[in-house]
Amino acid sequence: MSTPETTLAVYDRIAGDWDRYRDRRLTERAWLDRMLAAAPRNKGKRTVLDLGCGSGRPIATYLADRGAHITGVDGAPRMTDLFAQNLPTATVHTADMRGLDLGRTFSAILAWDSFFHLSPADQRQMFAVFAQHAAPDTILMFTSGPDEGVEMGEVVGEAVYHASLSPEAYRDLLTRHGFEELMFVPEDPDCGGHSVWLAKFTGA
């Protein structure tokens, strides 16, 4: 039975196969472009915090190729080893995103297909982590389920846990932690059915 606590061990175990077989068609491109277009530049360069960065391919590589400096965070050591090999000029940390404190802010914070592996309680706590790494106008983008629920998925033949809050709960958390919702598209047909949130940190 997969649980939130077994997810990192699963991804560590399958890291090589995940990197080898991960779909490289980049159906996420339009959303990544939206995030970059909205994100402010810091001294001429966008900085992106990629939470649950995996091996860095294809998403972090795409962002880096467009001039962003990437800081990857993943709790699976074999994934961060691959990330370091695939993006040698980027920064990477082997760490659990829960309770993360890097002591700096970023132009954009991305949690694509990663945040939703956390339990509902941990997802709620993550909004304080997002805010801690955000400056005025920082863009936050994450994927969730289309509505509240828990289900099991599969990655390279391994069971993995997924959970989602309701859209109303995410909206409340965004507002309470100083984020303004820019877009929410549930089950986007142009992005492989991903449910995607885009928000801006106002600090208000």
Q: Measure the end-to-end span.
A: 41 Å
Proper CATH architecture: 3-Layer(aba) Sandwich
The biggest sheet amounts to: 7 strands, mixed
Rg from Cα: 16 Å
Name the CATH superfamily classification.
Answer: Vaccinia Virus protein VP39
Number of structural domains? 1
Number of strands: 9
Summed up, the helix count is: 7
What string gives the helices and strands in order?
Answer: HHHEHEHEEHEEEHEE
Overall 3D form = globular
Strand content: 25-35%
Classified by CATH, the class is: Alpha Beta
CATH topology: Rossmann fold
- Report the mean per-residue pLDDT as an integer: 94
Walk me through what this model shows:
The structure is a single chain. By secondary structure, the chain is of the alpha/beta class. The chain has one domain: Vaccinia Virus protein VP39 (Rossmann fold). It is built from seven helices and nine strands, in the order H-H-H-E-H-E-H-E-E-H-E-E-E-H-E-E. The chain has a seven-stranded mixed sheet with strand order 3-2-1-4-5-9-8, with helices on both faces. The protein has a two-stranded antiparallel sheet with strand order 6-7. It is globular and about 45 Å long. The protein starts with 6 loop residues before the first helix and ends with a strand. InterPro entries: Methyltransf_25 (IPR041698), SAM-dependent_MTases_sf (IPR029063). This is Class I SAM-dependent methyltransferase.
SSE diagram, text form:
Elements: H1 7-13, H2 15-21, H3 29-38, E1 47-51, H4 59-65, E2 69-74, H5 77-86, E3 91-94, E4 106-111, H6 120-132, E5 134-144, E6 149-155, E7 158-164, H7 167-176, E8 179-188, E9 194-201
Parallel strand pairs: 1-2, 1-4, 2-3, 4-5
Antiparallel strand pairs: 5-9, 6-7, 8-9
